[in-house]
Structure prediction request, 283 residues.
Amino acid sequence: MPKGKLLLIGGHEDKGNEIAGENLKIQSKKEKQSHFEILGSLISKIPRANHSIEVIAAASSISKEMEELYVASYKQEGFTKVGIIHLNEVEDASNQGLIKRIEGAHAVFFTGGDQSKLVSLLANTKLIHAIRNKYHSDKNFIVGGTSAGAMAMPEIIIAGGILREALYHDDIKIATGLNLITEIIVDTHFIKRGRFARLAHAVALNSTCLGIGLEENTALLISEGNIAECLGTGMVIIMDGSELGLTNIESAVDTIPIIMENMKFSILAEGTRYSICERKIQV
Prediction:
């Protein structure tokens, strides 16, 4: 059982980068928290003189202005050292200097972008092994990620998908992820981009996994690989396909739409705790 924590963040609305036809108007009754604030509040509870974080920008290219935003924002939230790691080639993830930086860090954060790109640059590298080893051995270590950075963390990931009026067998692409946690599949921007059916499709194909649907400005903090706590202003949807009934998920081809029954759902809000192993809300 891992000793550290995973922080899966559903992303944050970017009005300058909305996807045409894939966004709903969402209103919040509470003041939204940035992922800087969420991670800062967690790390501040760990008693030590200094806190350091390494931001891994492998899922997308980030501008100099965005780098400066990450550094300034994390320092404002209490991190005394903020490093930016750019991975452009697989070979970069074998750099011994970068591995030492991970070994000395108190937190690692994956930016958003393209989860497949992130996995292609990190999977089976010395750098991800260093992150995984520290996550398993250090109770005060936090691995965080937003959007694609959160989606890439499990063993099985959604690598892409098409939203239609019905589900068809070739509408989703499943791939192997960074394997920091098993038995869950994560999707982000969940309500905003209408990804309910996409995650249900992924869970029906992998019924031993729970589906985790994260809305923007919302996070799930997973401790010891099991207890998941909802943070932020939105909701987390948990999909459980372990008792899936009638479905044609394996036989539907071409233009035959997929059906399924008895997919179970749980809705988590701020402060709700959920046991992944027991598959139920903790009260």
